[in-house]
Each structure stands twice: as C-alpha cells, then as structure tokens.
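Lab notebook, design round three. We kept the backbone fixed and only want residue identities now. Task for the bench partner: fill in a sequence for the structure below.
Input structure tokens:
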C-alpha cells in the first residue's frame, strides 16, 4: 500500500507514537520474534552454514538504520554510543554512513573496540572519542545537549542482568539528557528474552531491530522502553520457525499475516456456505455479553448465527440481534440440532458458573462429541464455510473455562475415555491470566504471565491438548506442538483492559472459525482485527468501548496487504507504533 504522506517522519515529534489517528502500522507476512539466544544461533547458522559474511550483515544493518534515522531526524548532529560487540559495530557503520552523507556525527566508543576501527573504512566522523578519557567524560554532557538524536549501540542481545559501569553511567546520561534516542536491535539494559530491565535501561523513542524484533521488545516493560518498533531485512536466509536452537520460537501477528490468512467469500454463495456459528452465552443480568459477542461474530462475516441463551434473557437479546436464530439453551433436542447444523461453537461469555450453566455446558459438549463421532472426527478445516462432513470447531471462553476448571473429575471437557477428541486443530481455549491459573491444579499453578506468557500458554495447550489464546499485553497463541511457533499480538494495549472486550474477541473468533479457519488461526486473526479496530478508534475519550470495536471491525476487515508506513524503504519488515 502507498504510505500516507501526512505522517512523514520529519513531522513526528520525538514522543510521537505515529501519525494522526491510528498511526503507521506495517508488518510483512513473516516477522519472527526470536529470543536473544535464538537470534545469536540464527546469526551463527547464517554465517557458518549458509555462507553469509558477517561484515555484509553488519553493513546492511548499520546502513538501514542510518537511512531510517535520516528520515526520522533529518537535521542536526548525531551522537552514536557504540559498545564493544556486534551491536557497537552496527553503530559504527551507522556513524560512518551518516558521516559520508554529510551529517555531523560524534562517535563515542566504549570498551574494547579497535582504534582506528576498520568499520569506518578510513572515514572520520566529526569527533571520535573513547568514553573514559578525562576530556570526554567531562564533555559528554555537552555532546548530549548538542545532539539532535542519540544512537544506542551499547549492549546487544547477549547481555543479561544489570548493566555495569561504564555502560550504566552512559545509559543514565542518555536518558536524562532529554535528547531523542534511537536504539539498535533493542534498548541497552533490556533483557532480549523477558523484556525485564533489572537495572538502568535505555528509554528509546525508536528501536530498529535486525531481521525481526526480539521477544523482550514485545514483553513489558521492554515494550514500553522500545518506543516505535521498526524491523529491517539485512540479508539473512529465509527465517525458520520451530524448536531448533537456530529457529525462531515466536511469530508476530501482522497485517501481512492477516491478509494472507483471512477467509474470502466466494462470489456466488449463500448464508450456510458463509459459515454457521452457534453461540452459547449469557444468563440473567448478562445479556450484554451475548449481544457484544453476537454482533462481533456477524461483523466478522459469519453467514448464519444461532444464539443459545436462557429464556430469561431471550427477548432482550433477540431485540438487539434480530439477525440471529435464537435457541433455548435448556432445550436439549433443539441444542443438539443446532450443534449438528453448525461449523463452529463459541461458548462461555456471561453464562455463569452455577448448576444450570454447568448442565448447559455438559449438554452442549455431549452434543459436540456426538457430532464429532458421527462425522468420524474429520477436522479438515478446508475451504470457507459449509463444512459438511467436518466436526464443529469449539471455542471455550470465560465462564465455560471456569466450569472446566471447577470440574475435578476432568470429564466435562474430556468426556469418556474412548470418546472422540478433536486435538489442537479443533479446540481453542481463550483464558485471561486469572482463568488460566484456575485451569491448572493448585500444585501446578503458576504466576509468571508477566515473565513467560509463551511458556505458560504452551503448558496449558499440552495439558488440554488444545490451542490456547492467553490474553494479556501482549496476548499469545500456542499449541501443544513444540515445532509450531507461538503467535504474539502486535496490537495489544492497556485500553483493551475493559469489561466486554473479551466477549467481542470470542464472537470474532467464532465467526471466523465458522468460515472454515482453524481455531488457532481464527484466534490470531481476531486478535489482529480487534486490536486494529481499537487502534482505529483510539482517539475516543477514555479509550474505545467494546461496542466501538464492533463498529470498527468492518474498517479493519477492509484493510489489505501489509499495512502502511511513513517510510518508503523496501527493506522495512515492521513499523509498529509505540504502546498507547
């Protein structure tokens, strides 16, 4: 897509998270999220096994970052802080590139870098100093005050723990200078795996990642320290996803990925062929959860919606969602018929956890297993809608998950030992952290959603042999299969922490799954679409409401391709606004 000229980088303030409205958001279809160790192993594999010269990678990284910096801050002196490792080498290449283009560049090196540095190619920046010299130590404050931008090339992905001197002093000085900071690969002091900053860490306005953003820049507090997150292609071989040391265990949900995975309606079709969803939700006083989920499902494109609710709330739900067929959740024959005529089932929003809710869930799961057995457990997931012959996909959310957690026998979800089971291709659990903790027995409970949400989601997936969407900031999607990457949402925001947002997400997942998309893929698409809808409505006072997301879903669905950016460089893989 053509970028929007109204959000030229030169017009952005140093604290801006993007352009007016939703801001720039570009992401190619394949954007990896490696850990620090995975990134280092991939570097070594590319260099040693595939013959990609290390100097070529460093040259591409430094020059690409220099081009982006020159767009972001086109005028004024540049101060580059370069450490002893490859991260510092990228900074030296950036400094040399800007100097050859006529920019005023001050290069400060820290630690054991050669002098003269061969990466300068005999070019000289305006000043070249080694931090620690008495003259420079006393003059650093002046250099920082003079600079229009500071480049952080101090510490790379292999650094863990608290930054030591002299790096900690330089980081503190850069942060307190008030000068905008561009970090290379990740902000110095941020753990590449966890996002933790156990000591002082760079507070960047922009971060330029090489090959793909490191996992620590997607997890808080690292995400907040990275600012606007950019990723560039630097000449690596095709990225590999999996469980090997040199493969990326994480993948980002981007506009390009969503455009490739989105279901498409046939030009000639009918309502049943466009996907049939059964939504079981609600109890007295909780009709709003049903309405939000149902409207989101319809906005996501589902062709035929059935809603199973208690009779006590049928009238209010039916008046709010006249497009649906309304079933009595306590009518077992009607419920069985509805399950048998559906492509996907979404269960849980607002349904309560009392005896009546437990019985309704038991009835629905029994009907689901019967349909699965009758259809020989076929989970083709092919095509778009009209999945005759394939068992319905199942999405369990909210109170459905709490009921599963309360079931000490384990029979509610598993059924009889010899009964049909769909596996991770047919079942998706969508807990928030509190629900996820309840899904583990007490002796297995974990409280590490802030440190390792991917590991937590993977553990849940293995326990239940299902796909798991663990909500959070960011939300993550995992399966029990170690070779499948964990999917990370790119559009997470604290503004989504509002009652009703999860109901919109569940409805969107169900609507997409009914159109033939596997539940895990439907979960990823729904995370992208609802997150993007929130970005499109972010200007509303106090942040968007759940109903705002429902109304913005058509606009999010209408977006095509990898998105837009204020940059026109073809090597750009990702342009993600700063957190909001």
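Proposed sequence:
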């Amino acid at each position: 897509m053509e970028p929007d000229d109204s959000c030229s980088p030169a017009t952005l303030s140093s604290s801006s998270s993007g352009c007016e409205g939703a801001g720039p958001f570009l992401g190619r279809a394949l954007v990896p999220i490696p850990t620090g160790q995975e990134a280092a192993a991939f570097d070594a594999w590319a260099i040693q096994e595939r013959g990609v010269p290390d100097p070529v990678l460093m040259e591409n990284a430094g020059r690409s970052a220099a081009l982006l910096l020159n767009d972001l801050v086109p005028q004024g002196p540049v101060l580059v802080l370069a450490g002893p490792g490859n991260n510092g080498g990228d900074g030296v290449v950036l400094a040399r590139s800007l100097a050859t283009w006529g920019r005023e560049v001050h290069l400060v090196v820290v630690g054991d870098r050669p002098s003269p540095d061969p990466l300068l190619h005999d070019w000289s920046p305006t000043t070249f100093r080694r931090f620690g010299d008495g003259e420079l130590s006393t003059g650093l404050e002046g250099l920082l005050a003079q600079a229009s931008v500071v480049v952080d090339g101090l510490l790379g992905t292999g650094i863990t723990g608290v930054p030591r001197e002299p790096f900690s002093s330089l980081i503190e000085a850069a942060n307190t200078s008030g000068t905008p900071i561009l970090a290379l690969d990740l902000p110095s002091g941020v753990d590449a795996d966890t996002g933790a900053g156990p000591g002082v860490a760079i507070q960047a306005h922009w971060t330029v990642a090489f090959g793909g953003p490191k996992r620590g820049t997607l997890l808080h507090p690292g995400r907040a320290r990275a600012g606007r997150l950019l990723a560039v292609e630097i000449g690596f071989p095709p990225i590999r996803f999996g469980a090997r040391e040199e493969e990326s265990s994480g993948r980002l949900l981007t506009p390009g990925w969503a455009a490739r995975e989105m279901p498409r309606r046939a030009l000639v079709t009918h309502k049943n062929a466009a996907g049939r969803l059964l939504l079981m939700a609600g109890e007295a006083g909780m009709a709003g959860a049903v309405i939000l989920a149902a409207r989101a499902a319809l906005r996501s494109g589902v062709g035929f919606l059935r809603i199973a609710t208690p009779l006590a709330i049928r009238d209010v739900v039916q008046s709010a969602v006249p497009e649906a067929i309304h079933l009595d959740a306590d009518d077992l024959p009607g419920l069985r018929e509805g399950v048998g005529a559906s492509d996907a089932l979404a269960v849980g929003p607002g349904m309560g956890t009392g005896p009546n809710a437990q019985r309704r869930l038991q009835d629905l799961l029994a009907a689901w297993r019967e349909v699965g057995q009758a259809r020989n457990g076929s989970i083709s997931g092919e095509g778009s809608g009209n999945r005759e012959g394939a068992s319905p996909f199942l999405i369990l959310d909210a109170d459905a998950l709490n009921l599963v957690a309360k079931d000490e026998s384990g029979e509610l979800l598993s059924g009889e030992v010899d009964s049909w089971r769909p596996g991770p291709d047919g079942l998706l659990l969508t807990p928030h952290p509190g629900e996820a903790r309840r899904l583990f027995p007490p002796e297995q409970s974990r409280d590490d959603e802030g440190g390792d949400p991917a590991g937590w989601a993977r553990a849940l997936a293995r326990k239940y042999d299902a796909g798991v969407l663990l909500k959070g900031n960011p939300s993550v999607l995992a399966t029990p299969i170690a070779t499948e990457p964990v999917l990370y949402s790119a559009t997470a925001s604290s503004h989504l922490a509002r009652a009703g947002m999860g109901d919109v997400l569940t409805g969107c997942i169900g609507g997409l799954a009914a159109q033939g998309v596997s539940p895990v893929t439907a979960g990823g698409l729904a995370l992208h679409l609802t997150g993007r809808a929130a970005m499109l409505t972010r200007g509303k006072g106090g942040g968007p409401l759940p109903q705002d997301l429902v109304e913005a879903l058509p606009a999010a669905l209408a977006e095509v391709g990898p998105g837009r950016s204020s940059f026109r460089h073809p090597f750009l893989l990702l342009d993600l606004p700063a957190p909001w």
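Keep this in mind before ordering anything: Confidence is low (pLDDT under 50) at residues 1-21, 377-386, 444-450.
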